[in-house]
Design a protein that fits this description.
Layout: H1 2-21, E1 23-29, H2 30-35, H3 37-49, E2 52-58, H4 60-68, E3 74-77, H5 80-88, E4 96-108, H6 121-131, E5 135-137, H7 143-154, E6 165-167, H8 172-182, E7 185-189, H9 190-195, E8 202-206, E9 213-220, H10 231-241, H11 244-252, E10 254-255, E11 258-259, E12 262-263
Parallel strand pairs: 1-2, 1-3, 5-6, 5-7
Antiparallel strand pairs: 3-9, 4-7, 4-8, 4-9, 4-12, 10-11
Pfam families: PBP_like_2 (PF12849)
Keywords: Signal
Signal peptide: 1-21
Length: 268
Amino acid sequence: MMLKRLVIATVAVMIATATQAEVLKLAVTTSFANSGLADVLLPQIKDDTGINVQLLIVGTGQALALGAAGDVDAVLVHSRASEENWLAAGNGTHRREIMYNDFVFVGPKNDPAGVRSADTAVDVLRSISNAEAPFVSRGDASGTHKMEQRLWEEAGLNPEREGWYRAVGQGMGAALNTAAGMNAYIMSDRASWLKFANKADLEMVFEGDPVLFNQYAYLPVNPEKHPHVKNDLAMQLEEWLVSDTGKALINGYTLNGERLFTFNAKVE
């Protein structure tokens, strides 16, 4: 009887260990999480590969910091310059582009700054600055925040000390909620805006400038720097993301008939 209990206990430990070994930690952006795409992808990933993907949802800057510290096995982010710097520092093995969408500007329906008539994203920010219209920034070193900062710089403006500019230091959903409460302008990724429920008196007021292209990339953490990371699982996940199944689910994810992401991974 004692031997039988020992065998059962040993098998239980082996099963628990095997199950634990299939857990992969992936740092992702709040914009990706807010879109709802993960709710479609993760169950299929688990069914097809046995990998239980655990998401750590933060801004791009924090996601890359988690990867650099070896606290996750891979990252999925959207700020190419930051990603390349991260790779150059030896934090990851490579960068694989997976999908894209774009950024848009959202603002009050009555558009007090007149940004609907702007020709470029830089002109949008100049119009907001000239009108001193309330503007909400994520202010969190995310990919969205870095893009916004780049556009302000191209506009020759530094709004951070202006009374009409509010940096909230939070994710996309929280920033959109703040903008809705203030009836303010904000730059958002398209997927987060479409998924956002509390639109209040806001609507999309500018889109389509090529500079607002928003690429998402997958970067496994470097196992030579952090031997404990699960590089084998990270590579399995990458192969699934660029597979025909991954492509179909990404391209097929829509809201009110509008595609939220477009698959653009290259077959290697």
